[in-house]
Amino acid sequence: MAKTLYLMRHGQTLFNRLKRIQGACDSPLTEQGIASAKRVGQYFQDQQISFDHAYCSTQERASDTLELVTKMPYERLKGIKEWGFGVFEGESEVLNPQPDPVRHNHGDFFLQYGGENDRQVQARVVRTLTKVMERPNHQQVLAVSHAGAIHMFLQKWLTAEEIKQRGIYLGNCAVLKFSFADGQFAFQSIKNWDEQA
Q: What does the domain layout of the chain look like in residue ranges?
């Protein structure tokens, strides 16, 4: 029987609002981010969606979001933290490179500046979430992560063209639903609460 993973992006932060590269550094949730996270929690209640386990990255914006969504106990996982952007952390988003035309993401760009590349991020997120879903009694799981990390996870299961065709946009507090069986994830749906990243 397939299991279900709800993979959520954290709420809007000050750096999101200021259009700054966040990565491994952190900034607090804004009032909008707090309100959106609470709306997600209410949505889960209204839809009678419950979880047997909850996880988030080790970054404060993810744990703060999770605590607004649910009061259940949770575990922090380094494997689902945001893409590390090296010396670009905290700088303006206008410094982000154009996407690699083949890999459809930042590719190797940030490696030369002390950050991670796309394959490193994807490998750790896929490995971490696979181990989570393979644990006993993990039928319906909530995990809160970050846009870059989630995008790389999504690119493992959908092509760039499929992502574009489906109009998938990872706004703050976006919730992606995946089924999991036989070591493989399958994208099911996405729900966005915020229009702006």
A: 12-191
Q: What is the pLDDT of residues 20-30, one digit of tens each?
A: 999 999 999 99
Euclidean distance between CA atoms 104 and 174, whole angstroms: 20
- Backbone φ/ψ region at 58: left (φ over 0), alpha (ψ -120 to 50), beta: alpha
DSSP state string for 128-190 = HHHHHHTSTT-SEEEEEE-HHHHHHHHHHHS-HHHHHHTT----TT-EEEEEEETTEEEEEEE
- 0.85 surpassed by pTM: yes
Angle between helix axes 60-69 and 31-46 (nearest 10 degrees) is: 40
- Could you tell me if 133 and 85 are in contact, meaning their C-beta atoms sit under 8 angstroms apart? no
SS3 97: coil
**Domain 12-191 coded CATH 3.40.50.1240:** yes
Q: Can you tell me the mean pLDDT for 19-45?
A: 96
Contact 7, 176 (CB under 8 A): yes
In one-letter notation, the amino acid at residue 49 is I
